[in-house]
Amino acid sequence: MTLRELEDSDLDTVFEMMRDPESAWMAAFTAEDPDDREAFDAHMRKIRARTDVTNRVIVGDGRMVGTIACFVMDGDTEITYWVDRSVWGQGVAGRAVALILEEVTVRPLYGRVASDNVGSLRVLTRAGFEKIGTDVGYAPARKAEIEETILRLS
């Protein structure tokens, strides 16, 4: 498995991955309307123009199997990732996190995960992130406020 820079030709695949209802449910804090391609394209233009974002494609077995990024939000650097449901449970997220942590050396690094997303919580804690608190926020994919766990890698 490798990481590479996100390219224009990847955007159709990323859009389709993010439209998967079960994946969106687990991620929770997603686009309001996952089928709105205009909004997706506008969001991607905005984040790809930022200099404080490291945006990578996860490649496994010769194909894109997800995305991973680090970005600055309110002065803190955070990590986020999206793994195609077809490869859940195969160690893809854990390996991608390990690879991006070699590239992005900013510490502390934060992660925010829906508290009931045990798979993602496991990925980050195995990578050395520690739970430091919780917050409640509106999760568009669930159309409800939910609890999210905040993690930090020192």
Describe this structure in words.
The chain has 154 residues and is an alpha+beta fold. It is built from five helices and seven strands; from the N terminus they run E-H-H-H-E-E-E-H-E-H-E-E. A seven-stranded mixed beta sheet has the order 1-2-3-4-5-7-6, with helices on both faces. Strand 4, helix 4 and strand 5 form a beta-alpha-beta unit. The longest helix has 13 residues. The protein is globular.
The largest sheet is: 7 strands, mixed
Q: If helices are DSSP runs of H or I spanning 4 or more residues, what is the number of helices?
A: 5
Strand adjacency order, main sheet: 1-2-3-4-5-7-6
Q: Considering DSSP H and I runs of 4 or more, what fraction of the residues is helical?
A: 25-40%
For the record, give the distance between the C-alpha atoms at the N and C termini, rounded to a whole number. 25 Å
Strand count? 7
Instruction: Tell me the overall shape.
Output: globular
- Average predicted local confidence, pLDDT: 97
Cα gyration radius (Å): 15 Å
Q: Could you spell the SSE succession in H and E letters?
A: EHHHEEEHEHEE
Low-confidence stretches: none
Strand content: 35-45%
| SS-based class | alpha+beta
